[in-house]
Amino acid sequence: MAPLPRTHSPQTWTADIGVRIRRLFWLKAIGTTVFTWLFFIGYFHMLRNPAYPVVVMPLTALDHLIPFQPYALGAYLSLWVYVGVAPGLQLSFRELVVYGLWIGALCLTGLGLFYFWPTQIPPLAIDVSGYPGFAMLQGVDAAGNACPSMHVAVAIFTAIRLDHVLREARTPVFLRLANWLWFAAIAYSTLAVKQHVVLDALAGALLGMAFALPSLRWRPEGRRQGSTLVGADIIGHH
């Protein structure tokens, strides 16, 4: 009697995510670091050398309701970890490159807006330099180049793309919820640490969505091919 063909149990979401993390790990880590530094070079140049008169952003009623909350600094700084998660879970080299092109276009658009319309938030009514970490923040990330908030723009781009990966991998709902809570904490922190005003955050969210949503429609590889690659990698480790 002929032996039955070997079968494999359905891949789990942990295996899927594990393969995504391992694939091209060092390229993703180094590429994300280099990309971030290149963005900051352009950002700081325009911050310190505005080409046009700087516009002070107006405050809204919501800005007056949100007090200064120094403990939100951790969430604010966590963006620089968060931005690496979505590219770190791209499955193939081509997907990674296209992801980089989309977020690169987002950042270049933001820098272009800062060039033609430099903005800043109104002077703070309190001295924040006495709080741990804020002297460094004010020196490195002064409250200019305010609108749109690139902090929020990049965060919502990451949130949308990460949610898409988590849905593809069929992860538990709590992980997708945690993703959106992380984004919400970052967005709120820009207001709580008084680096941005509400109009900055709203403009940043719209800018980020303007690039994130189209990027989901034009992708180099579909889920079917991605599943094949993941499945092959999992089988290869048995």
TrEMBL record:
The name this protein goes by in its record: PAP2 superfamily protein
Bilayer-crossing regions: 25-46, 66-85, 97-117, 142-162, 174-191, 197-216
Organism listed in the record: Variovorax paradoxus
The keyword ATP-binding is annotated on this UniProt entry: no
Domain Phosphatidic acid phosphatase type 2/haloperoxidase: 144-221
Keyword Transmembrane: yes
Gene3D superfamilies noted in UniProt: Phosphatidic acid phosphatase type 2/haloperoxidase
Keywords: Membrane, Transmembrane, Transmembrane helix
InterPro entries: PAP2/HPO (IPR000326)
